[in-house]
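Following up on my earlier thread - several people asked me to post the actual chain instead of describing it. Fair enough. Here it is, all 220 residues.
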Amino acid sequence: MASSVISAQEIIRVSDRLFEPKCLITLNNKLVFLARDTAGVNFWQYDGINPPVRYPDLNHTDFEIPYLSDPIVFKNKIYISLDGGQEGSDLWRFDGINPPEEIIALSGYISNAHSFTVVGNNLYFNANDNVHGQELWIADDINPPRMVADILSGDSEQGINSNPYFLTALGNKICFVAEDGVHGNELWEHDGINPPRLVGDIYAGGDDSYISNLTLYNNK
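Reply from S.P.:
Thanks for posting it. Predicted structure:
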């Protein structure tokens, strides 16, 4: 049986310099990824022809790669959550030209950002500001990120939060599953203007309806 792989080429030897490439994504026809070498963890770019180029100043000089989220391209920049284990922000963006930039929220703190989803001119994600727990956040690449709403009020240290997940774009709205402390985990939506609203209490009462795998099909 013939192999479907025509050829494969090692770009750079692990034993020479580059270790554990992660979070590979394309930006401006280049492959961008995070990897560690003797200078610590940084962004790298590869154009398919020349050797990979390292972009320093990520402020993560530890040899081990810290917690990462899946990256996303938003307004021609890569957004990613990279937790270095320090107080402050772990949300970063990289335009492929300038050094990576740490994004600071108005509260001065944002952690565990994940589930990045683009809706029009906004980027939505799940994040924690160390006060409200995991809630829905929004960024526009101009102003500091902000929390959309504290859907389930409580103390983040006690794990009381709405923890929105399955973030899915639907036209100019973001749809997601969240817990408000009354209806269980149910379907919600936010139009970018008004407060998020519960679409429906599918399993009436405080029990979850176990929604999963939101998928856009025929604008529904």
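The chain has a mean pLDDT of 86. That should answer part of your original question.
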